[in-house]
Sequence to fold (203 residues):
Amino acid sequence: MEEDPVTRTTAGYDDVAPVFAEHTEHPAPEFVAFRGRFAAVLPPGRVADLGCGPGRDAAWFRERGLSVVAIDRSAGMLRLAAARGVPAVLGDLRRPPLAPGSLAGLWSSAALLHVPAAETGPTLRAWAATLRPGGVLGLSTSAGDGESWEYHGYDTELTRYFVHRDPDTLLAELESAGFEVLEHERTVQRRTWLSVLAVRREV
Fold:
């Protein structure tokens, strides 16, 4: 059986978690502004950070009084998130361990880019199912074309599986999954990022 690229990528994150946390602790100003816009439009209720990594964003939400849960496949990353005082749950962002309609907000930064393109639709539908109508999605992922293995960096030979998504295709898949896109923008910070704010449509 062919290895799930997400499984191999997760193992790599386990190995580099502390170094990764150090290198990603201070995001670019454009990203900080996007995160703030997401928080500003959230309705009251619980927020999940899917693919939370070392918990940087989840901790930021918690510091602002939001009820947040951090979810990641990497146990190494989750230990760092939990150390920041964030409720942390081991789970796959493709099938979030969350009750249907239980969230007011869903945040996912630099995590969907590790999900194979063929699984995009089912993943987005699973995300929509966790949000109540009117719930907000904040998504940031790699824009581009193709899927490939890339070296981590961080003085290691480990690799990560990256999926670079065509923005128009991803926006259409979000609409098909039950989201209404409020805004989207592209920024360039070493790679090209697509950031999207969307709401779960009324059923």
Q: What stands out?
A: The CA atoms of residues 140 and 195 lie 4 Å apart.
